[in-house]
Design brief:
Strand order of the largest sheet: 7-8-9-6-10-11-12-14-13
Number of domains: 2
CATH architecture of the largest domain: 2-Layer Sandwich
Protein name: Oxidoreductase
Largest sheet: 9 strands, mixed
Organism: Flavobacterium album
Oligomer: single chain
GO molecular function, one term: nucleotide binding
Length: about 325
Amino acid sequence: MLKVGVLGAGHLGKIHLRLLNQSEKYELVGFYDPNSENADKVSNEFGYKKFDTISELIAAVDVVDIVTPTLSHHDCAKEAIMAGRHVFVEKPISNTVEEAEEIMRLAKEHNVKGQVGHVERFNPAFIATKNMIENPMFIETHRLAEFNPRGTDVPVVLDLMIHDIDVILSVVKSPVKNINASGVSVISDTPDIANARIEFENGCVANLTSSRISMKNMRKSRFFQKDAYISVDFLDKICEVVKMKDAPEVPGDFDMILQNAEGVKKQIYFDNPDVQANNAILDELETFADAINNDTTPVVTLEDGAEALRIAYRIIEASKNR
C-alpha cells in the first residue's frame, strides 16, 4: 500500500481524508493544515494524525495529496516533488501557467508521477458515454451554481468552467484555433458569469457557459457529431444518446424515420448506456495509485491540467478584450 498524506483539511480536504482512510490502495499517514485550530479539530474529531510542518508530512509518505487553496498548489507540489514524492493536485493545477509548467518540469526531472483533480472525468455519466463521443463538431456546456462565497476569490472560469474545459479537451483531439469570451462581475470582484466560444482547428466549436449566481444548479454538456447526439448530465449522473442510421426499406410500425429535402431517410434510435454508480473522488485517487504501482500514465496528467489552465486564462483574457 502507498503511504499518503494530505495537505489541507478544509471542506474538500476532509473528504479526501475520509476516502483515503477507507481506500484499500493507500495507507493514510496523516495531514497538515496551517490553521492549527482547524487541524486540532479535525485530528480530535476523526483521529487522523496531525503533522506540525509540511516537510514532516512529506518525509513520511510516498504520495502527497494537495487539497490547499490554489495559490499554494505550486509551492506545495514543488516541495513534494523535489523530495521525490508523487503528487495529486486538486484543480486547477496552479495559480498561473508558468507555475504549472514548472511543476511538470520538476516531475520529469525527479521521475515522479502527478495527477490533477479534474473529477468530472470520473463522473459515471461521462464514463458511460465517453467512448461514444467520436469527433464531435459542436459542443454546448452549461455549468450553473447557486451563489456560495467559497471560491469567489477567483474568476468563475477558474472556479467552475475549467471542469468543462478539461472534459472538452479530453474528447476534441485538435489544437485550439480561436477563443471569444465575455464575463460579468455581479457580486464578486471577478466575473461571476462567463461565456466562451472555443474554435478548434478541425472545425469543432464549443460554447461554454458558467455562472455562480444562478437560481438553480445545472451541469450539462451536449455533444453533436455525425449521426449522433450525446447529452451528459454531470449533476444528476444521467445520459442520453440519440443516434441515426440509414432507414430500413420497410420500416416497422414504431420506427422513427426522418426524411430530408433530398429524400434521404434516416432512422432515429436510442442507445443509452448503463450508468454505473461510483464515488468519483475515490476513483480518481485510486486510479492514481494504480498509475504509480503499474508505472502507467495517470488518467488526468499534469500536462492535461496545465493545458486546461492555459485555455482558461485565454478565455479570461479574451473576455477582458471585449
